[in-house]
C-alpha cells in the first residue's frame, strides 16, 4: 500500500518531481484535508439522494453506492487510527486528567443533544413528510428522543473516557 501511495500521491497534489520530506508532508496534509471534505460531501449527497429516493418511492443504485463509499472511508479511517493508537489521549497529571474529563463531559453533552435533535427532526418531521403522512409533534416524541440523546451522550462519554490513558502514578 505504501508503494501505491508513493506513486499516486504526487500526481494528485502536483508534486511529481523528487521533493524533500517537508513537501511530502505537506502533500499528505492536503490529501488529509481533501479526505475530510470528500467524506462530508459524500454524506450530504447520500442524504439528498435518500430524500429523493423516498420522495419518488424508489431506491437507486447511486444511494447505495454513496453509502458503501462513505462507510468504506469511515471504517478505513477508524481502523488505521486505532492501529496507530491515534484514538488515545495520554495525560501526565491528575489536573490534566480532570481537565480532559471536563472537556469530555461537555463534548458528550453536545453530541447527545445534537444526535437527539437530529433524530427527532428526521423521524418525526422529515420522513413523515416524504411519505405524505402528517408530522408528529408530540411530547412523547420529544421525551423519547431526549432520552435517546442522553443515552447516546453517556455512551460517548464512557467511550471517550476509556481512551484517556493515565501516564502518572
SSE series: HHHEHHE
Q: Determine the N-to-C terminus distance.
A: 40 Å
Q: How much is the average pLDDT?
A: 86
The largest beta-sheet arranges its strands as 1-2
Structural class: mainly alpha
Strand content: under 5%
Overall, the morphology is: flat
As an assembly, this protein is: single chain
Total of helices = 5
Tally of separate domains: 2
Largest sheet: 2 strands, parallel
Please report the total strand number as a whole number: 2
- Taking all Cα atoms into account, the compactness measure Rg is 21 Å
Low-confidence stretches: none
Helix content: over 70%
Can you offer a commentary on this structure?
The protein is mainly alpha-helical and 169 residues long. It has two domains: 1-87; 88-169, no CATH class. Helices cover 78% and strands 4% of the residues. The protein is built from five helices and two strands, in the order H-H-H-E-H-H-E. Strands 1-2 form a two-stranded parallel sheet. Helix 2 runs antiparallel to helix 3 and helix 4 packs antiparallel against helix 5 (139-161). The relative contact order is 0.09.
